[in-house]
Amino acid sequence: MGLLSKKDSKLIMDPLADNNPITIQVLGICSALAITAQLKPSIVMAISVMFVMGVGNVVISLMRNIIPSKIRIIVQLVVVATLVIIVDQVLKAFAYTLSKELSVFIGLIITNCIIMGRFEAFALGNGVWRSFLDGIGNALGYGVILIIVGFFRELLGSGTLFGFKVLGDPVEKTGLYAIGYENNGFMVLPPMALIVVGIIIWVQRSRNKDLIED
Amino acid sequence: MGLKQNLHNLKEKYKGKKMAPAFNALHTFLYLPNETTHNGTHIKAADDLKRTMNTVIMALIPCLIFGMFNAGYQHYLALGEIEAANGFLGASFWTIDNLIIGAWTVLPLVAVSYGVGLAVEFLFAVIKGHEVEEGYLVTGMLVPLIVPVDIPLWMLSVAVIFGVVIGKEVFGGTGMNILNPALTIRAFLFFAYPTWMSGDKVWVHGAAERAGTPDAISGETILGSLAQNKEAGYEIMDMFYGIIPGSVGETSTLLILLGGLFLIFTKVGSWRIMLSSVVGAIVMGLIFNGVVEAGWITESSKFYGLMSTEFWQHLLIGGFAFGVVYMATDPVTASQTNKGKWIYGFLIGIISIMIRVFNPAYPEGVMLAILLMNVFAPTIDHYVIQGNVKRRMKRVKVKAA
Question: Does pTM top 0.80 for this prediction?
Answer without folding.
Answer: yes
